[in-house]
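The data are quoted verbatim for completeness:
=====
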Amino acid sequence: MAYQAGRQRSQPRPVPESLEAQAYLQDYATLLEAVPFPSFVFDDRWDVVLSNVAFETLFDGVGAHPTAMPGDNFLRFVLFHPDAGSILGEHESSWCLPMLAHFAAAVERNGQDRGLQAIRRDIAQDPIMDAAYRHGLPHWIEAVGPRGVEHDGAVRPLVHPDPRWGSTDCRIVDETPKALQGMGYSRMTLVLREAVRPVTGGPRRARRTRNGTAELRAV
């Protein structure tokens, strides 16, 4: 994962063979750290290659897990980590099902990949997850349509450990340059929205509803 403040950033992993690609990733890691929102680079298995401090901060409180740490494999974290639901709001509908849809697409493209096969075996060992993957997922995809499956542009709830953010939403932005794409990597950024806090005791004004009546709301 990315380095915490005061620590040296870890080396990108897995390291490409090309020295030019390695240099690019080193510079891209510097760029990633300039982003104030959680951002990470991952491969076709969702193995995390690079992540920034904001990403590590978001998941800093999750417990240890042998195979599903967010800085190792984000797909595994979403599907299998017991703490995932405490950070990723509406965990099943907003995070698990879209991730399962992308996993199914990856299996269709490259079903012989050992990493993907290992994830499929773990899904099969969980009766509820396996039923969702084999039976629930096709119906969900049909119901939400292609746009509902896409990550880019989706707004999803999460709970940030920093009270400045708290229980809020994030917009997922897929911003993968051609150089990363050529290495088989993708980049995702979670653009956080500041938590909306209720206003108490302040002035109120009337807001017109669609039927022309007024209702009160905090200014």
Observations:
- Residues 127-149 form the longest helix (23 residues).
- The longest strand covers residues 167-174.
- Residues 1-12, 198-219 have pLDDT under 50 and may be disordered.
- Strands lie at 39-42, 48-51, 155-159, 167-174, 186-192, 204-208, 214-218.
